[in-house]
Amino acid sequence: MADENHITNKNPHFKHISRAPYELGRLLQEIGEINAFGKPKVTAEASQKIQAAIQHAENANVAVLSGLEALGECLFKASENLHFTLDYDVVGDIGCLIQHLAVEAQFLQETEANLNCFLKHAEVIQEEVHHG
Questions:
Q1: Mean pLDDT over residues 26-33, rounded?
Q2: Helix 20-31 vs helix 88-121: angle between axes, to the nearest 10 degrees?
Q3: pTM for the full model?
């Protein structure tokens, strides 16, 4: 995962890295609908929000996949212990959790790839200042 202080200083929208899924969702709501037809144009602030969303998607995906790997290792080691037993309900709950996390990881990978592609082709423009 990214160094929170290093990234936060460069991008004010990338914060709370330990809450990546929540922050990603919040940023996606703030960014709103992205029109990718033609050469998209985004403001510098929107570009920073998209970059922060990309980093949160990547961080959340790493956490999900690392956690799944650790859970798999624990279950494998438990299977080697003759005195270790699990109730069927617990096994079912673990199965549902793993299934949910795999779907979340797919969503995170797609979100990261789509935002990276959009930002790669976007033109960052300066916001117009309106004087009243």
A1: 83
A2: 40
A3: 0.68
Q: What is the pLDDT of residues 77-94, one digit of tens each?
A: 888 888 888 788 888 888
Residue carrying structure tokens 């996606």: 28
pLDDT (mean) for 24-42: 78
Residues 17, 56: contact at Cβ < 8 Å? yes
| Three-state helix/strand/coil letters over the chain | CCCHHHHHHHCCCCCCHHHHHHHHHHHHHHHCCCCCCCCCEEEHHHHHHHHHHHHHHHHHHHHHHHHHHHHHHHHHHHHCCCCCCCCHHHHHHHHHHHHHHHHHHHHHHHHHHHHHHHHHHCEEECCCCCCC
Cβ 4 vs Cβ 52: under 8 Å: no
Count how many residues are written for the chain.
132
Q: Are 57 and 115 in contact (CB under 8 A)?
A: yes
Among 3-7, 48-52, 87-91, name the one with the lowest average pLDDT.
3-7
- 88: tokens are 């069927």
Angstrom distance (rounded) from CA 95 to CA 89: 10
Q: What's the token pair of residue 51?
A: 């970059």
